[in-house]
From TrEMBL, chains A, B:
Residues 165-358 form the S-Me-THD-like C-terminal domain. InterPro entries: S-Me-THD-like_C, S-Me-THD_C_sf, S-Me-THD_N, S-Me-THD_N_sf. Signal peptide: none annotated. This is DUF917 domain-containing protein. Residues 6-162 form the S-Me-THD N-terminal domain. It comes from Sphingosinicella soli. It holds the Pfam family S-Me-THD_C. Gene3D superfamilies: CV3147-like (2.40.390.10), CV3147-like domain (3.40.1610.10). SUPFAM superfamilies: CV3147-like (SSF160991). It comes from the Bacteria.
Length: 361, 361
């Protein structure tokens, strides 16, 4: 598909839904993408099956605290410089760009890069949602290395990291980004087309656009956006098990910024009284419990949305008194394997529960 | 000249003298150099005039807290990996290696690298002594950029930094080295032969060797090593203004590790009583005051030495009760220009005094 200027808002809304509360508010990314597309034209989303096995695919992302990017604005050329550094090191040019995560602002920034360079974007990512850490991608679940990894800040400083393992890459990149003021852009996990055919979460860019479009059309035609959203998701290959976990009013938000993460809980009282649903988050929503019983748990997606407009609300936007619905959605099967759960399962976030698929809860 | 295995100890002692209390204890560097030379043979020191103008010269150094290198030992191949990263970025091979600073362990590590690679070492450096920060080199005084700069740790992690200015390069490198455990090796300030002919401090490797040799021969022939050292220095082109600033016993040492630096003061009571000389340091000795009056100040060199053997004592080796002499030595003229004093003068270390040459104090 071709993403046109007028599609950007739908794409951003779908990306916010897939962010599961995290991934950063897509607002800045949307402005950047609209500006880039106004200047450089539409961007093509290419199916991974149409990519050559020996193509060089480079995931791009914003790295750091999502709360910072809205105050310390990117200049727009960071990702290009990061990509150049990677290309110099690898001795070859990228064939196409892809998002590392489809949730939040990180769905949009790789499209900005692709637009500026006139490159296509591969229609897949490494999370099928958003996660807070660099190594929480299907790429590393399948044994690919995060490095060589390039980080560029808005002043044009570029740091290229080659690390012996992804834990070291994460630590070095995290320190670098702190020295850059807690927000920078990275290109990492360079892979071949053949690699991404195995480990990519497929079709997620088109999915984000379709989710955003479904919600908009339902609003415009005065239908219930939630029932249209759920019936759209039920027809998808990966996100078919979905339901409304709560419908009510926010009666408590606890949130603190700790170790560079937004950590906390939100409590929702069911309309009509009684049942309390509590959602616990670390940047992303991790687990939803109703009266103490688990209703959905990471890597399945939990998204809090405005109960009238179905606009997704990121964890930093949660407020006392908001009327919301909480949607739980099955994660793609590639994130639910035993190998994947070692990297993105509940224990990786310090939770005491094991993963249970949403359809069994 | 050719540095042979049996010359290493003299070379290391002279480097410790030029370290002016800092630059790291050369002990680990000496062991590494002896091992490298036993395996790979002697290393040639080449006069800068014998280097082609278009040669690629790469300064190498240990970066971080000198106190850490003695606990977290290098594996010996770090500098090679850092150099490789730089060469890949620049698209050409280094012609020769040089020290960024001739003081302390950093005089020896570039010779280890050269020995392992069979490359010559240029007989000059960027400080003519030791300084605590990356940009405190004649290279930056003459407008050369610290980056591209490569940092490698003992695990083999490599970080290549290209920064818009040297302050950013220093900050990014400092954060990187902290993430690597506060000690790593760097290659930086890649320059041409023509550049180094203008900005290098000349003949400092031979100088370090001659200083160490002079002290050893004086000891062996039961002469006073201090009078031989001073008369040797008086005959050199750059270090000719020198004197004994204090001769006594250490009665107080205050030292703390702050922001990755060893910061503190040492007090020496003159033999025969009365006069107290206080030396203030930040890794290197910065200023010596006798009864409150400045006797020598950075960039001139202040070195505390054992009063019997004339073995230089680094700031981390200072202890209560040690009997010492403190030697003050003029810095090379290239460090005393108004431009240089903006980079390595007293104000750069937070001191309230302006620079006064030792010969006027």
């Amino acid at each position: 598909m071709k993403l046109e200027l007028e599609d950007v808002e739908d794409f951003a809304r779908g990306a916010a839904f897939l962010g599961a509360g995290g991934g950063g508010d897509p607002y800045i990314g949307r402005l950047m993408l609209e500006q880039a597309m106004a200047q450089f034209g539409p961007v093509t989303f290419v199916d991974i099956e149409d990519i050559d096995d020996d193509a060089l695919l480079v995931p791009a992302a914003m790295f750091g605290a999502p709360t910072v990017i809205v105050e310390k604005l990117p200049n727009g050329s960071e990702a290009e410089k990061a990509l150049q550094a990677l290309e110099t090191f690898l001795g070859r040019k990228a064939t196409a760009i892809m998002p590392a995560e489809i949730g939040g602002v990180n769905a949009l920034l790789p499209v900005v890069l692709a637009s500026r360079l006139g490159l296509p974007v591969v229609d897949c990512d490494g999370m099928g949602r958003a996660f807070p850490e660099l190594q929480m991608v299907t790429f590393s679940i399948f044994g690919h290395s995060a490095s060589p990894l390039a980080v560029t800040d808005e002043a044009g400083n570029t740091v290229l990291i080659t690390a012996r393992n992804d834990a070291d890459a994460e630590r070095l990149a995290r320190h670098t980004v702190l020295a850059m003021g807690a927000s920078a852009q990275i290109c990492c996990y360079p892979m071949s087309g053949a690699d991404v055919k195995v480990c990519g979460v497929r079709g997620t860019l088109t999915l984000a656009f379709e989710i955003g479009r479904t919600i908009r059309i339902a609003r415009e035609s005065h239908k219930d956006p939630f029932s249209d959203l759920l019936s759209y998701l039920e027809r998808t290959e990966y996100y078919g098990k979905c339901k409304i976990l709560a419908d009510g009013r926010i009666i408590d938000v606890r949130r603190e910024t700790r170790m560079g993460f937004a950590i906390g809980t939100v409590k929702i009282e069911q309309t009509g009284g009684g049942r309390i649903t509590e959602v616990q988050f670390q940047n992303e929503n991790l687990v939803a419990r109703s009266d103490g019983q688990v209703k959905a748990i990471v890597p399945d997606l939990i998204t809090v949305m405005d109960r009238e407009t179905a606009e997704p609300i990121t964890t930093e936007g949660l407020k006392f008194g908001q009327r919301v619905k909480v949607i739980g959605t099955s994660a793609p099967p590639i994130l639910r394997t035993p190998e994947a759960l070692k990297v993105v399962g509940p224990r990786c976030f310090g939770l005491d529960e094991d993963f249970s698929p949403i359809e069994t809860l």
